Amino acid sequence: MTGIKKKDIFFLIFLSLSGMILMWCLYFVPDKSHSSLSLIVRQNGKVIETLSLDQNITRTVSSHQGHTNVFQIQDGLVTMKQADCGDHTCVNTGSISRAGQSIVCLPNKLVLQIEAGSGKNEGDTPDAVVH
Fold it and tell me: Residue 22 domain-assigned?
């Protein structure tokens, strides 16, 4: 019991690096399995469109008040490209690609949210199977 040894320091460095690599893999590597993910587009709290992340499209959403937002789905990433709101927080949010993530434009009352499941035949597949 003479204090910290060299191999203790190497072990701590190894553990720290392993943890950082694991976190990088979990959070920063894009999820390529977006085939079962859907983008739900809501305006004024109502669903106006449901889109698959498998397609590459650009959409313009206009409100009754004349406000417009332009978003894009490209390679499984959803990005708000343009908005005529005052603060542009929705444009500065960046891209989203995982279930539960959302882009919100409060002034234009528009929400883009990614949800798991394609929305097709969801009732046909069980949530869990217990044996």
Answer: yes
